[in-house]
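Co-fold these.
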Amino acid sequence: MHDFDTDGHRARKRFGQNFLSDPNIIRKIIDGIRPQPGELMVEIGPGLGAMTDPLIERLGHLHVVEIDRDLIARLHERYTAEQLTVHEGDALKFDFGSLCGGQGADDKPSLRIVGNLPYNISTPILFHLAGFADQVKDMTFMLQKEVVMRMVAEPGTEEYGRLSVMLQYRFRMGRLFDVPPGAFRPAPKVMSSIVRMAPLPAEQLGAHDEALLGRIVAAAFGQRRKTLRNTLREFIDDAGLQALGIDPGLRGEKLSVEQYVAIANECVRREA
Ligand code: SAM
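Predicted complex below.
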């Protein structure tokens, strides 16, 4: 389980612990986030505090969600309750909406989420966080570069898949810069990237049934080699696809986010 000693803490592989140690990279990430005094922000996996320190310095107060009890004990020793609210537990189960308690229906979403995410749970955590898009102003994460490339991928490319469609449906996304393994202790095996995600306004989304959209996209990419005619058979027939100007002989990776939304809405219309 333990494979490296960092500041007296043995980094735990099962919690995806690679601690940022390059001060220039840390500064660049914080500059990219641009924290403003008094903003409502939560950091996922503060670890040994590489980003926590400069974030608290700029914000005054920060929320964190951390799973490792040893690291939680250190956080309590290091920061006061005025500076830091520690939420102990699994970010995959954490209700991020609960942090926006007093927010009324007409208020602009104000929650900002940041983190150098544990790479072993990157895809499930992104899907979990997407569920809070309504309450979020923006999110800035470090992830392995390969995942970020899938998040921002364009239709027709090898990286384009379910993650690309479902996140691009809900967020405007941008890759900020790459971070080499040497910026961490212990060094991960792969390159990392910083990605920014800003929820799109509700009126731009367009799917009448988002759960159905999710099922259609999952089916279309479930068997990447098969054509839409086969993968979407239970949702829509050839004529339905053709009516939308979509060739049933294509594979799922060729369709844009808008085309997936059009298919889902056509299915809703036909059921009505
Ligand atoms: N932010 C620190 C840094 O940049 O040096 C640590 C980043 S490290 C890649 C990931 C952090 O997420 C660790 O502190 C780890 O304990 C924590 N973590 C791992 N799985 C978690 C989970 N399911 N929920 C909350 N925190 C988790």
